[in-house]
Design goal:
InterPro entries: Tscrpt_reg_PadR_N (IPR005149), WH-like_DNA-bd_sf (IPR036388), WH_DNA-bd_sf (IPR036390)
Number of domains: 2
Largest sheet: 3 strands, antiparallel
Pfam family, one: PadR
Radius of gyration: 26 Å
Strand content: 5-15%
Protein name: Transcription regulator PadR N-terminal domain-containing protein
C-alpha cells in the first residue's frame, strides 16, 4: 500500500490540525487516526519529531503543563498555512481517496477471512454429518435438534453481550470508529450467510 503522506505533506497537515486551536501531541495523533477512519494511526515517533521541527522553524509554539506539551500555531504558522491553502485542499482530496482504498483493503481482508471461516464451517458440518449416528439409532431427533438450538442460542447471546459490552466501553472513551462499524457489518453478513448454509 502506498505511503499515506508524500514528503512534506504530514508537516502541512499538522499545521492545519492546529488551526482550530492548541492541541497535545496525543490529540493530534487521534485526530489523524479519526481522519483516516482508523485505517492509519501515526506513531509518536512520527509526530513528535515533526512538531519539534515546526517549533524550530517558528511555525508552532510549545507549552509544557503537567508532563504534557501543548502545541499552538504562531503567526508565521498561520501565514504558511494560508499560503498553501490550495495545496492543503488537494491533500484533503488525496486523503479521502487513501481512506477509500484502505477501507476497501480492510473489507477485502475481512471477507477473505470470512471465506476461510465459511469453508471451515462447511468442512466441520460435513465431518459431523459423516460421524453422526444413523437416523434409525437416534431415539428422538426433534429433541436433539432442540438441544442443539438451545446451545446455538446461547452462543449467539454470548456473542451479542460481549460485543455490546466492548462497544459500550469504546464509546465511553470516544473510540468507536467507522472502520469498526464496517468490519462488524462485513463479519455479521458473512457469518449469517455461513450459518444459513448449514441450515439448508
Amino acid at each position: 500500500m502506498a505511503p499515506v503522506f508524500a514528503h512534506g505533506q504530514l508537516r502541512l497537515y499538522l499545521l492545519s490540525l492546529l488551526e482550530s486551536g492548541p492541541k497535545h501531541g496525543y490529540e493530534l495523533i487521534t485526530a489523524l487516526s479519526d481522519r483516516f477512519g482508523g485505517t492509519y494511526r501515526p506513531s509518536a515517533g512520527t509526530i513528535y519529531p515533526r512538531l519539534a521541527r515546526l517549533e524550530e522553524e517558528g511555525l508552532v509554539t510549545r507549552s509544557d503543563e503537567e508532563r504534557k506539551s501543548t502545541y499552538a500555531l504562531t503567526d508565521a504558522g498561520r501565514a504558511e498555512l494560508e499560503e498553501r491553502r490550495d495545496e492543503l485542499s488537494s491533500l484533503e482530496s488525496d486523503i479521502a481517496e487513501s481512506v477509500r482504498e484502505r477501507a476497501a483493503q480492510v473489507r477485502e481482508d475481512v471477507r477473505g477471512s470470512m471465506r476461510g471461516l465459511r469453508a471451515d464451517l462447511a468442512a466441520a458440518a460435513q465431518q459431523a454429518r459423516a460421524a453422526a449416528v444413523p437416523h434409525q439409532a437416534v431415539p428422538d431427533e426433534r429433541s436433539m435438534s432442540h438441544v442443539r438450538w438451545a446451545e446455538a442460542d446461547r452462543l449467539v447471546s454470548r456473542f451479542r453481550d460481549e460485543v455490546r459490552a466492548d462497544l459500550r466501553r469504546a464509546d465511553a472513551q470516544g473510540k468507536v470508529e467507522q472502520l469498526t462499524v464496517e468490519t462488524l457489518r462485513t463479519v455479521l453478513d458473512s457469518a449469517l450467510s455461513a450459518v444459513r448454509s448449514t441450515l439448508r
